[in-house]
Amino acid sequence: MKLINTLALTAALAAAAMTGSVSAQAQERIALVVKSLGNGFFDAAAKGAEKAAAEIGDIEVIYTGPTSATAEGQIDIVNSLIAQNVDAIAISANDPDALVPVLEKAMQRGIKVLSWDSGVAPEGRMLHLNPSDTALIGETIIKLAADYLPDGGDVAILSASSTATNQNAWIEAAKEALPEKFPNINLVSVVYGDDDSVKSTNEAKGLISSYPDLDAIIAPTTVGVVAAAQVVTDMGKIGEINVTGLALPSEFKQFIDNGASQAVALWNPIDLGYSAVYLAHQLIEGKEATAGATFGIGEVGEVTLDDQTAAAMAAPFTFDKSNIEEFSKIY
Ligand code: RAM
Q1: Whose CA is nearest to atom 6 of ligand 1?
Q2: Residues 6+ away with beta carbon under 8 Å from 13
Q3: How many CB atoms lie within 10 A of CB 25?
Q4: Domain 134-266: what homologous superfamily?
Q5: CA 130 / ligand 1 centre spacing (Å)
Q6: Which residue out of 37, 128, 246, 267 has the highest number of ligand 1 atoms within 8 Å of its CB and is therefore the one to mutate?
Q7: pLDDT per residue as tens, the chain (331 positions)
Q8: CA 10 – ligand 1 centroid, Å
Q9: Ligand 1, pocket-test mutation among 41, 163, 271, 275, most atoms within 8 A of CB
Q10: Options 3.40.50.2300, 1.10.630.10, 3.20.80.10, 3.60.150.10; CATH of 3-130+268-313
Q11: What DSSP element (H or E) covers 6?
Q12: Are 191 and 218 in contact (CB under 8 A)?
């Protein structure tokens, strides 16, 4: 009897495989929700997500996000993903709190939720993957400016949106590092370009006209840093104002080349999207996201969750004239 059943099952599976329905049934659908579409950083992360999906097998990645970096736009998207009954939502959030109710609703429906890059509050997700240690990023973005200001100077920060969890945490960490580690660096202003090129451009121009003695603009956003470097270039301020922060080498190489920037930093965004899919897959398979749990993240290695069920991937890497060419070909 058992043998007959097994044979029948094998035949059914073979028939289903021929029509492709076996893989369709087994497929996990993982939504990669980003702050906004049209951002090269997230396009690189999506590449990594696809790579992880191909390695694991039977995973469909749904790469989605609003047209502008708002929490409202992401809430609409999460609602539609709930309606589609996806298996997991991996989100880089535009706000730590505003997304919590809709993500709680998703979890109540059995959808696994994690945040990556820019987090949501712990009650709105099962785990969070930081690109790197927050204090280290905060210190790094100031150091990138301070390294080229031996006598100290005035710096301003051009951030992403004013509610972005990641940038706000990095700015807080930067402010903490300033008095002790960089006593001669004076932070004169923090402005917000919303990860929008036009708004970031206007904010960079505003900084330059409000602070004629400005020595550096620090933009901890790949969108803002390009806008600021373009403004410095167009206004003929190369050599006067150094633009630095977190930049995608492929988009930023031209500004290292033309001298608008001495150096910038970032982590590997491809690895970040890749890791998010590995984490989502393990949650779907039933792994518990408890403090102290270790998750494999494919060839990137493994991460262990801290008491906030958060983990960090790798240290930021600095790009300057010596290496940006090489990295610009990768991301
Ligand atoms: C932008 C986004 C993203 C951030 C990078 C550094 O692309 O704001 O969240 O991690 O910059």
Answers
A1: 221
A2: 22
A3: 9
A4: Response regulator (3.40.50.2300)
A5: 12
A6: 246
A7: 334 444 444 444 444 444 444 444 559 999 999 999 999 999 999 999 999 999 999 999 999 999 999 999 999 999 999 999 999 999 999 999 999 999 999 999 999 999 999 999 999 999 999 999 999 999 999 999 999 999 999 999 999 999 999 999 999 999 999 999 999 999 999 999 999 999 999 999 999 999 999 999 999 999 999 999 999 999 999 999 999 999 999 999 999 999 999 999 999 999 999 999 999 999 999 999 999 999 999 999 999 999 999 999 999 999 999 999 999 999 9
A8: 48
A9: 41
A10: 3.40.50.2300
A11: helix 2-19
A12: no
Give the residue whose CA is nearest to atom 2 of ligand 1: 221
Question: Which amino acids bring their CB within 6 angstroms of ligand 1?
Answer: 35, 39, 41, 92, 117-118, 160, 166, 195, 221-223, 246
Contact 98, 71 (CB under 8 A): yes
Break the chain into its structural domains and give their ranges: 3-130+268-313, 134-266
CB 189 within 8 A of CB 171: no
Sequence-distant (≥ 6) Cβ neighbours of residue 178 within 8 angstroms:
142, 185, 187
Residue whose CA is at the smallest distance from ligand 1 atom 8? 221
Which residue in 165, 231, 227, 173 sits closest to 199, CA to CA? Answer: 227
The whole-model pTM stands at 0.92
